[in-house]
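Handout, section 3.2

Students often ask what a structure token actually looks like in practice. Rather than define it abstractly, here is a full record for UPF0125 protein KVG88_10290. The first block is the sequence as you would receive it.
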Amino acid sequence: MVEAMIEVEVVYAAVDRQVLLTVSVPAGTTIRGALLESGIGQQFSELNLAECPVGIFGKVIADPDTRAVQSGDRIEIYRPLLADPKEVRRLRAAKAAEAKARNQ
């Protein structure tokens, strides 16, 4: 009996380049399994595919080791943030308040 295959996309955007791969995997493959089968880890040595945060179509998946992919899924690999957006806004507001106080 032939195992049913489905196609999914695996996407990763590094600082200097981005890659989109289309991968055929057996039905029932987990998200992590699809990542490993895609071979994207060989293209980006900094990726730890066993632990990296991932999502499907922009929605973070909490359990990629158990959730099975569905045909047409776009698996996105997320990089860690370089700066916390809340902290950046807080610093910008403090700097603007300081400049305003100096000009009064």
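Discussion prompt for tutorial groups: The chain has one domain: 5-103. How would you have guessed this from the sequence alone?
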